[in-house]
Each structure stands twice: as structure tokens, then as C-alpha cells.
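idk why but the lab printer keeps eating my pages so im just putting this in chat instead. protein + zinc ion:
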Amino acid sequence: MCLAMTYNTLMIILGIETTCDETSAALVEWTGDAQGRILSNVVLSQIGEHAEFGGVVPEIAARAHVETLDTVIAKAMREAGLSFAALDGVAAAAGPGLIGGVIVGLTMAKAIALVHDKSLIAVNHLEAHALTARLTDGTAFPYCLFLASGGHTQILGVRGVGDYLRLGGTVDDAIGEAFDKTAKLLGLGYPGGPLVEKEATRGDPQRFALPRPMTGRRDANFSLSGLKTALRLEAEKIAPLSDGDVADLCASFQQAVGEVVMDRLRTGLRMFREQVGMPTALVCAGGVAANQAIRKVLHRVAFEVGISLVAPPPALCTDNGAMIAWAGAERLALGLTDPLDIAPRARWPLEEVTKAPARKAVQ
Ligand code: KG4
Ligand code: ZN
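predcted complex ->
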């Protein structure tokens, strides 16, 4: 007998995401046996409000979430054709993230759950990224996740809901952050990833001998800040920069990042096989996975191991409410709900996420 309550029937969950610069709400239907259907997924990006600062400004983000979240939720409910009475649970990202935004989303979820007498599920934002491949592709446990966004760079073993093994992570900048800082240095704008990728397509990836930090190490960690500094020094040496110089710097940077990802993922996958066994797939998530050069590397590494690459569509790889609703459904199906006084968390490592109690042996 399982200690946790289990649902096999239909459930509808509202998911709220406000940890960074996207205000999002979504409704997801759980159709039993871990099958899902997105009924609505409204994402309002704040990129325009942060662009002039070259990065996300926490106070501006929190204020924008306050101003728009109720409208975003109302739109998600309208698009799904549902009222709050139809919900089984309300899930919100309770961290990690920019604390002002997290407070806005979690408080809203608590209010809806309290007023309409629904279960509250406080979702870890990273867990939501980690479980998205199950919503989009029905990926079975255990799988290896490469999460690379503006705020996170991690290689994880995903063994089950609430059961994660951290195989590697960045010791300084996230990969997306390194792309953004490179773009800023070269005067390309924000967010930098797509702009650097575009410049790189017409540049020479061999022109600048940039370092490949951490490659060859036995652990699967990343370090990106040295690469960024090396790029700055190369740019300063040849300033003022021509259009061709900018393209060559972008291409050389992207080439270096790709080689670092390849080496670190090979190591991460080896660690996975030693510690967990054979993964069912390599799954990617986060905005950086949209980069075609990085995507090629991921395909190659997965091919070497003999597994497939699962890449959810870009709209579900980046921050969105549907992934929060889905993680909420996975947790609610295991009876994992949270009290209304649960606290928002700026820092919340995946290892600290709770999992369902182990099944009791049948006597
Ligand atoms: O997952 P995401 O939308 O938001 C969070 O950071 O949570 O990821 C955004 C990050 C930004 O740093 C952006 O520059 C990067 O992903 N990114 C890319 C590309 N598209 C987005 N990096 C490299 N190449 C891209 N094509
Ligand atoms: Zn994210």
C-alpha cells in the first residue's frame, strides 16, 4: 500500500510562474498515468522593461508581476474556459528566484487556494524545468537533464518526482548569463543569446583562441567567468571593433561554450551511468537550448551514449506557467501538498525538494 494518496483520474491545476522576468499562468489537465494536456499557457515577458539595463532588475520585475499577474491569470482561465471551482489545485513557483517576484506569485496562489478551498502546491522552479519532458514527451524516469538558462546551469539525474541527483553545475556564471554579458560587452543588446548566435553564423570560430574552462575534470562542473574575461581581453586588444571582429568574437565564444558543454555533458552522463544506471534520455531545458550550435552538441553527446535527445518546444523550455502546473500535478498525484504558511525561497537547491514517502513493503 502506498502511504501517499494517489490520483489516477482527471485533475486540473492552475500554475503560476513569477520567479524571474516572465509573468505566466497556465491550466494543465492531468489525465491519469502521468499524461498531460495544456489547456492554456499565458506568458507575459518583461524583456522590454529590462532591456535598457542589459539584464533583469529585481525591483522592476517584482513591480511588473504585481501589476499584471491578475490579468494574466484571468486570461489563462478564460482561454481554458474554466472557473476556479473547476480546479483541483493551485501551484506556484515558490523559488528559487528573485524573491520579490516569488512572493507575488506564491501569495496569489495562496489567496486563490484559500478562497476556493483548493490544494496548494509550492513548486520548486528547477523541478518544474526537470519534469517538463514528461508533460511534452512522456519521458520515463530516470533521465539526465541539462538545464541551461540565464540563471541556471546544471546537469541533473532525474530519478523520480522529488528525487534528483546533482551531477554538475556552474561555480560562477550561468551559460545564458555568459551569452548575455558577451552581448553587452560587444554592444549587441539584451537578451544576448539569440544576438550572439546570429552574429556567430557569419564569424570565424577559430580566430580567437579562447579557453575551455573545466574541461577534462573528473566532476561535471562549469565555470564561465574566465571565458568571458578572456573574450573581453581579446576585444580590448583589437578595439575599435569592426562588424567582422564582433562576428568572429561571437563565433569563437560560441565555439568555446559548445566544446565546454560537450566535455561537461560527457562527464555528467558517465557519472549518471555509474551512479544511477542507463538514462532513458538526455533532456534539455532553458533558453540556451534554443541555440542551434549547442543543440547539435547535445544531439551528438546523446548519440554517443545511444539515447535520444528530448527537447521540449522552446516555449516550454523557457519559463512558463504550464511547467509549474505540470509539476504541481505530478506532486498532487502523489499527495504532496503544502500548507498555506509555506515560505517563498530565493535559494532552494533541488536536493532539498521533498519526495513522496517510500512505499511500505506489503506484509
Ligand atoms: O530559460 P530562459 O528563458 O530564462 C531564464 O533565464 O530563466 O533563458 C534565458 C536565457 C538568456 O540568458 C538568453 O540569453 C539565453 O537563455 N538564450 C540563448 C539563446 N536564446 C536564449 N543563449 C544562447 N543562444 C540562444 N539562441
Ligand atoms: Zn527557469
